[in-house]
Design brief:
With about 80 residues, this protein is mainly α. The protein has five helices and no strands.
């Protein structure tokens, strides 16, 4: 599975936050991502990853590229498939 695509789809599905025009390095909070959407995204990350990624981890580096690395390093389901 393409993790970047999964994250972009979740952002749109959960918060109707379109990231098609956003680069992997752009700060998503500065681009308009709100904390409620981040909490919902966090819930989905943890449900799908059987992991405990924290809100602080998402908020400290709110970029798609950082979240890709976070998912890759914390999600056994994706690590096993790579």
């Amino acid at each position: 599975m393409n993790i970047e695509l999964w994250i972009r789809e979740l952002l749109y599905e959960i918060g109707e936050f379109s990231v098609s025009h956003i680069s992997q390095e752009m700060n998503l909070i500065e681009a308009g991502l709100d904390s409620l959407t981040m909490m919902r995204l966090l819930e989905r990350f943890n449900q799908n990853c059987f992991s405990s990624i924290s809100y602080v981890q998402l908020a400290e580096q709110p970029t798609i590229s950082s979240w890709i690395r976070l998912v890759e390093s914390n999600c056994a389901a994706y690590s096993a498939n790579t």
